[in-house]
Amino acid sequence: MSNQRVRLFVTGKVQGVFFRQTLKVVAKKNGIFGWVKNLRDGRVEAVLEGDEEKISRLIEWAHGGPANARVEDVDIRNEKYTGEFSKFDVLY
Question: Is residue 90 part of a domain?
Fold first, then answer.
């Protein structure tokens, strides 16, 4: 298993559709740590750390999101793994 850290910027109808809460549930099911938050410009930002394969599954989910979301784009930025997180949070 190889650990990875990515930062996602998700664009589209992703606020007000339970995107953050659902992403947290999916992250916890996959043992992914980090956080997710809404941005003022309407995007959702997330930092994910964990197993590379499990992060790939979460990124795949993010391309569709929850039922009422309409994801237009997922900007994925690889970052240096730090291991700084012990849980997954929704930031406000």
Answer: no
Cα–Cα dist 92/82, whole Å: 23
**Domain tally, the chain:** 1
Tokens of 36: 């997710």
Q: Is the pLDDT of residue 69 over 80?
A: yes
Considering the candidates 3, 7, 30, 38, report the single residue annotated as catalytic: 38
Q: What is the CATH number of the domain that holds 67?
A: 3.30.70.100
CB of 39 closer than 8 Å to CB of 15: no
Is position 38 annotated as part of the catalytic site?
A: yes
